[in-house]
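Researcher: Structure for this, please.
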Amino acid sequence: MSSKGPKSGGPIGIVVVFTVITLGLAWAFKCLLTVFIDAEKHEQMQSVLTNVATIGGIISGLSLAGFTFLLASTPGVRALIKKHGRLAHWMFLTVYSLTVLSCLACAFTSGMENFQLMVIVASVSAALMITGTVLTVLLINSIAGWEDREEILAN
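Model: Predicted structure, token format:
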């Protein structure tokens, strides 16, 4: 029994939602970092950047491992591609690439003296990592929620 509800915005809608949520989180993190870390204490900000880069490395490794696991289960991949199409490719590969690039940005910025740049890079990187991880988990979890994969594959 399949219900036909309103269609979602598709990949463009997801990209817009991803961007808006990421920018909102980045702004919130920037406010928090500016309030809680003194501009004179660069060591604290360097520590924050190092921690964000480390966590990002772990997240990207888990994301790649999840994608590899998904590729190993052929029916799951076919069902995912059938249901989400190019969005699945964008989600895994682009979000993975953005996470790796934000880790590198954190690593390079941790050696700089510009406090505001450090705050911006840490905020945007953390927001990208959180949003990307949540969207990736939701996409992978959607496979487990499908009651009848054969129905999806048949359509």
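Researcher: Any notable elements?
Model: DSSP finds six helices and no strands in the chain. The chain has a mean pLDDT of 77.
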